[in-house]
Amino acid sequence: MTTPLHQAAGPAPACAAATCRRSLRDHELAAQQLLCGPCVHLIGVWLTAELPRQITVLEASRERETTGVSAGGRTVHPTAPLPGRADILNLLGPAAWDDTVRDPYGEAREDQHGAVPIAGTLTAWARVICDDERHWNPPTSTSPLALAAWLARPAILGWAARRPWAGDLHDELDSMMRTIRATTRISPRRRAVPQPCPRCDSLTLVETDHQLYVECSDENCQALYTRDELAVAARLSVDRGSRVCLTKDCAGATYEVPTGHSVTRIHYCPPNEGEGEQR
User: Fold this and answer.
1) What is the full DSSP assignment across 171-183?
2) 100, CA 20 to 30 Å: which among 59, 106, 111, 220?
3) Left (φ > 0), alpha (ψ -120 to 50) or beta: where does 278 sit?
4) How far apart are CA 48 and CA 31, in angstroms?
5) Strand pairing class (224-225; 253-259)
6) Residue 132's pLDDT band (boundaries 50, 70, 90)?
7) Which helix (H) or strand (E) holds 188?
């Protein structure tokens, strides 16, 4: 269980991502990050792990579905039908590196329908990064996979997490991935974890594909744990018959677990002691 930081100086600033409830930790503040580590990790997972698989599904789903058996008659359409699914063609469509549109008739806005292409979203952010930091060489290709791989480079992603627009980057990529999932009907799986939450003792732990943390879904708890922390908690609970205690002056033991850049402290009451103070 990650210990809240800056308790004496007031609450730590929140992660800039709109969908994140996590506060920034000491090592993240020291690195001048505006996005927390899990959100930075998640962007990398979207771009390098999930997006290539989603694009494979989109590519295989271009054609319209046909059902039934043809009766031999001719179907009359007021206009020629599109050769594929418009929603998927929109997502897979090309996008120019130069966002200046030459439109002598003033009809470009009315001609644009549906979702912004994947390449359009990624190209826009590649341009922001290249304009903001001139020493980054632009991607050599404007294909969605090449753009995604370029944006997910650790040096670029780590630098972007410190920029004032870091929250917008996360939120726009989150919106793009939600649109893609709604089209392919393929989403990361959420699974219940068969272990009590070390903090609230409820069977409400949930893990999601590619997420760094396992989350307690109880709205009154909402604690986050790494899988290593849960393994330590399970071992201590079995070996000692004890559980997490939130009482500061309890006689129980504090266990320090190295977790990445920080040390996580898990405090346990000894068996049959402090029963009125636990929870």
Assistant:
1) HHHHHHHHHHHHH
2) 59
3) beta
4) 24
5) unpaired
6) confident
7) none
DSSP codes joined into one string, 84-108: S-HHHHHHH----SS-----TTS-H
Largest CA distance in the chain: 84
Provide long-range contacts, Cβ within 8 A and 24+ apart, for 75-79: none
Residue 245 CA, distance from chain mean position: 31
Determine contact, residues 126/139, Cβ cutoff 8 Å: yes
As a three-state string, the secondary structure of 44-55 is: HHHHHHHHHHHH
Q: Which residues pair with 224 in a beta bridge?
A: 215
Q: Which of 5, 15, 29 is nearest to 263 (CA)?
A: 5
DSSP strands (E only) in 87-219: 190-192, 205-208, 214-216
Give the chain's length.
279
Two tokens, residue 56: 């494979």
Amino acid at 266: I
Distance between CA atoms of 209 and 187, rounded to whole angstroms? 9
Which tens digits make up the pLDDT trace of 20-73?
888 898 899 999 999 999 899 999 999 999 999 999 998 888 776 655 445 555
To the nearest whole percent, how much of the chain has pLDDT over 90?
Answer: 31
Put simply, whether the predicted model's pTM sits higher than 0.90 gets the answer: no
Distance CA 29, CA 198 (A): 27
Backbone angles phi, psi at 249, to 5 degrees: -100, 25
CA–CA separation, 212 and 247 (whole Å): 27
d(CA 243, CA 271): 8
Question: What sign for the dihedral angle of Cα 153, 177, 20, 236?
Answer: negative
